[in-house]
Amino acid sequence: MLELVAVCRRFNDRRVLHEVSLRLQAGEYVAIVGESGVGKSTLLNLIAGLDRPDGGHLALDGQDYAKLDEAALTRLRRDRMGFIFQAFHVLPHLRAWQNVALPLWLQGVAGPPAEAAARQLLAAVGLEARGDGWPRELSGGELQRVAIARALIHRPRLVLADEPTGNLDPANAARVLALLGERIRGAGAGGILVSHSREAAATADRILRLTPQGLLSS
Q: Are 32 and 26 in contact (CB under 8 A)?
């Protein structure tokens, strides 16, 4: 359902990624590990359509989305992808449940159905009592769990997670990793986890190591 063929990215004269290839099946959850600075976040941004490659091919369900215009690419990200970023990107003027419901609102689902779905997913990440809280009232770990719930609520075709447990204690990390795997596999979606944590990576179906030579089995 996701295919990368010989993807390359340069910044000025520095080669960051060189001929990176990956095939991800529906229902498959893959972890990518590697040394700092090797290009893991750059690769995730390319897959997310937040950056464009200098060469190669990226396709989601057979559609080469790297060549889409910005409007079409925005729609694809909104409807078919879910993102968990290290920096959370939780909106300060929305309550926790409203942040989680945001992808549904963007798809035209509003009112009680959107709120009920958001609160249900907050309960799944252990935040059932914090749904009405403002982001400024939440800890870093709680904000991370809000971001995880938001990434999953619209049942995306592809889930991309950049260090999703970096701000979580071991118990909550295990809880959200189990939820990620369950939602990805259960929906027949695809999932890519980038992490420095071997424990987090071990929850995936397979582990790949990003190197200057490309992605290698780990």
A: no
